[in-house]
Prior knowledge:
The protein has about 450 residues and is α/β, with parallel strands linked by helices.
Amino acid sequence: xxxxxxxxxxxxxxxxxxQDVYEMLLKRKGHKTDRASSGEEALAKxxxxxxxxxxxxxxxxxxxxxxxxxxxxxRYDQVEVILxxxxxxxxxxxxxxxxxxxxxxxKSADPDILLGEIAKLAGLANxxxxxxxxxxxxxxxxxxxxxxxxxxxxxxxxxxNKVAASNASVLIAGESGxxxxxxxxHLHDHGPCRNAKFIAVNCQALSQSLLESELFGHxxxxxxxxxxxxxxxxxxxxxxxxxxxxxxxxxxxxxxxLLRVLETKTIERLGSNTALPIKLRLxxxxxxxxxxxxxxGDFREDLFYRINxxxxxxxxxxxxxxxxxALIGFFIAKYQAExxxxxxxxxxxxxxxxxxxxxxxxxxxxxxxxxRLVVLTEDGVLRASDLPSASLAELAPEDCLDPIKPLRDxxxxxxxxxxxxxxxxxxxxxxxxxxxLSISRRQLFNKVVEYGLKF
Length: 455
């Protein structure tokens, strides 16, 4: 049986800078990679090697991504394909999915979404049929993060358990990495619709047009490329729970449609005038300051009052330090089993560091740090020397600067160094680094490509 770290990805892009970035992201997750600069070169490599996934750009000179997808599905049906493009549209997304693509990713979206899709594929690589279906159905976060010794968290859990028994709409607020989806799953699993579907949609990962199609579905002929009817997530979740993650990033036009759905309890597929009744529980999550977004005109106040019957404010990990030792133990147990390693100890200075670090990336950062430590240890002892270097020291100021360089070039040098340091601090997590830098994920991703950063 193939070990998960043998999962092989062929990266196809006619821009070397994007090849570099995707390769870094994938290798950080333990995947093996190869590259091709064209569809033709990709097919030649597929004929010679064993790949699980082809990650291909859509717009390329010569054979484009859709043509490559078609050729792969004719010759190598066992190879999955994810298409990537900077020119996202419903038409090409529908076409790609209809042709057999596993997923479709827009370059301006959160790279963590792409990594999540690839992780899902890697986990299913050795499974088939019903085993795959069961694995996907069971793929939910661990409830361990709901356990706490923190007084504030205990109050939140008391409210959570009361609310779970109802169908009330809940808004879960908190910084990225605090485990908001875990709380959403808990509400569903302990609520009246526990035996129905739990459907999650990330509102930040899709463009407006794609998000509308994802949520509401569409009729055949609704737009170019819509060759068959598609059931949207609202319909799919009817009778169960719909979880809208990062709802604060939802485009205003989609907010208007969502408000109407909540008011009328009906939806209309794109291209249809027929109102279809739905009944579901809505759970939303955001790391955004919604009241501030309302004042800025980016979020509708009337929608805010519709989704926040109950608001749960999840505190960051730095405000619940008493829970860190238990979380460390949980993640060590998880990863020593996953990587078949016997962890026998931890350096005292590392233990002290982990218990007192502020974790700007919250539980997700702690999880990633522990996974790194487990992967890197050779003798079962976790050591501080295996921590990301930027975790241990603040940025050092430049002792000297070239006095004859143009200011523009100097600014770029400083920006490059600082971005590289922030990426190191967050262990290469694009989402958390972008939040810390107060820029979008798209902007950070473009900077990584522009400066050829390694992380």
